[in-house]
Automatic annotation (TrEMBL):
GO terms for cellular component: membrane. InterPro entries: MFS_trans_sf, Nodulin-like. Its main location: membrane. SUPFAM superfamilies: MFS general substrate transporter. It is a multi-pass membrane protein. This is Nodulin-like domain-containing protein.
Amino acid sequence: MSVAGATYMFGLYSKDIKSSLGYSQTTLNLLSFFKDLGSTVGVPSGLLMEIAPPWVVLAVGSVLNFFGYFMIWLAITGRIAKPSVWQMCLYIFIGGNSQSFANTGALVTCVKNFPESRGVVLGLLKGFVGLSGAIITQLYFALYGGHNSKALILLIGWLPAAISLLTFKRSEFIASGVAVVILLLLPIFIVVKEEFRQWKKKQEVLGSYSLVLGTF
């Protein structure tokens, strides 16, 4: 869920679609409409969840996500012939619709696994969807340096698809939890270390000042 909200990032790469394909603002608004339409059509994912295990739902969402955004990336980078507007609408609809498969696969499974805490679980999962735009953006700056915004579309294509296909054993869940705790505590350690360094430096200055006064 932490990377399942790529539809909220349309404003970050829409200018590349507009400039690369020579679209007007009206055409760009049409693409945005189909992007939102795809993300809200969740009936297919719900029906699939009724007859298939969660991993199938996530796998379908992974394929749709990669295909939709990868085709958009190929189009704006000139690696394929310029597609028609209806083709771009179809690509972004498919990419947006993949979000409903990720949401359904994760939400339904977690609610079934934690029936007594479903309110907390739903709040956490939906909160991560809202934060996913910021998370993907920071990963984009870390991996691509933030200088090529077209690469953001490629990242949106492969990263959520790859994460949807990852599986963890119990021991791996524990290891990942320990790693997350370490990452959360690391800033505190850095702050304490910096404060100690500043305190030590201040004590050295005070000691030198006292020594100078003692000589007089």
